[in-house]
Amino acid sequence: MLQMTHPEHDEHPTQMSSTPPPFTASSHAFDGKKHLLLAASGSVATIKIPNILHALSTHPHLSILLILTRSAANFLAGQSAEQPPVESLRQIPNVDGIFLDEDEWVHPWTRGQGILHIELRRWAHVLVIAPLSANTLAKITGGFADNLLTSVVRAWDTEGVIEGPGLGGKRRRIVVAPAMNTAMWRHPVTR
């Protein structure tokens, strides 16, 4: 996760933390906010993510975690004012974390440790994938789980039965905004 280190905990406060503490859903369970997991896959429409985040920043009781696939991050590398660096998105109000594919398995896993895609699923009240590229659409419909975003989708509790009654078990929605060129959209494989 992209996260600035805090001066009181780090002697080099201007550096990005290379290994932040693992994200846990339970540490945010009772924060009184709605939890939006916003994800972008590799479509040129990814350049609209800053606009989406700014529009959502006006809602004080909203917490946003952002997932960017590797290809989505390529559209936000500081190429222009419209395409700011990924790190700068963290400064937008309500953006409480940014996760990239490489954040999934930072260290070798051992029993008892959390798994990022499961923790993100537990945390989120809704998942919005905007933009949803043709490639990620194909992966999701094929059941692939080869990056952080597709792993979250594959582990999503679509019926509200995984967490169970009394543990917050509710059906949680996935909202998608497909974004691809007309030829890809009209292709028989997409239908």
Automatic annotation (TrEMBL):
List, for all copies, the residue spans of the domain called Flavoprotein.
34-190
Q: Which InterPro entries match?
A: Flavin_trans-like, Flavoprotein
* An example Gene Ontology molecular-function term: phosphopantothenoylcysteine decarboxylase activity
Where does this protein have compositionally biased stretches of type Basic and acidic residues? 1-13
Q: Which GO terms describe its cellular component?
A: phosphopantothenoylcysteine decarboxylase complex
- Key words, A-Z: Coenzyme A biosynthesis
User: Which BP terms in the Gene Ontology apply to this protein?
Assistant: coenzyme A biosynthetic process
Indicate whether Aminoacyl-tRNA synthetase appears among the record's keywords: no
Span list, region Disordered = 1-25
Q: Please indicate if the UniProt record lists Nucleotidyltransferase as a keyword.
A: no
Which family does the similarity line name?
Belongs to the HFCD (homooligomeric flavin containing Cys decarboxylase) superfamily.
* Protein known as: Putative phosphopantothenoylcysteine decarboxylase
Source organism of this protein record = Lachnellula occidentalis
